[in-house]
Amino acid sequence: MLLVPPIATKKEGAQLHVTAVPYTKFQHSEDEKRSGRPVEVDDDLIQAIIDSDRHSTTREIAEKLHVSHTCIENHLKQLGYVQKLDTWVPHELKETHLTQRINSCDLLKKRNENDPFLKRLITGDEKWVAYNNIKRKRSWSRPGEPTRTTSKADIHQKKVLLSVWWDYKGIVYFEVLPPNRTINSDVYIEQLTK
């Protein structure tokens, strides 16, 4: 057994102590496999998980690979990924609808110049308020890639109809309609007379 040369330590008022450390114990030791996070994470595994589900969170990926989520964040950054919020898919208007909107606006503008009526207007709208809103999620993309799309909520989910009326000063009246009741001319008249 080889010994490291003795190290003398001395403290005030204490006796001299000599310490020897066996050197052979550490001379040819190999690291054995042990529990804990791996030293390296395969970028191809992270890439495969992202390719299969762009909405995977760093914590979900970390759980699959048995590493910390900050380790995954660092690897995603090195791979060139950034997190982007998905965009809604817009409903496109047809050419006839666009033309109709322009014509209506021109007509109202000319009428208001002759007889100012806009401050006398009360307008209303309805909005379905869903009990379970589908939310846009963040997904991992490279800087040049387009954002992912998220489909809008199913129209047959549980919801209530909110009816709102307002003028140029603000909200005049609002009402949440009972289930299975929709807006028609009778409901409009009833709400406007309140």
Automatic annotation (TrEMBL):
Top-level taxon: Eukaryota
UniProt entry keywords in alphabetical sequence: Methyltransferase, Transferase
Protein name in UniProt: Histone-lysine N-methyltransferase SETMAR
Pfam families: Transposase_1
Coiled-coil blocks: none
Organism expressing this protein natively: Stegodyphus mimosarum (African social velvet spider)
Protein's GO biological process: DNA double-strand break processing; DNA integration; double-strand break repair via nonhomologous end joining; methylation; mitotic DNA integrity checkpoint signaling; replication fork processing
GO annotations of cellular component type: condensed chromosome; nucleus; site of double-strand break
Keyword Methyltransferase annotated: yes
Classification of source organism: Eukaryota, Metazoa, Ecdysozoa, Arthropoda, Chelicerata
UniProt-recorded Gene Ontology molecular function terms: DNA topoisomerase binding; double-stranded DNA binding; histone H3K36 methyltransferase activity; histone H3K4 methyltransferase activity; single-stranded DNA binding; single-stranded DNA endodeoxyribonuclease activity
Signal peptide (residue range): none
InterPro entries xrefs: RNaseH_sf, Transposase-MT_Hybrid, Transposase_1, WH-like_DNA-bd_sf
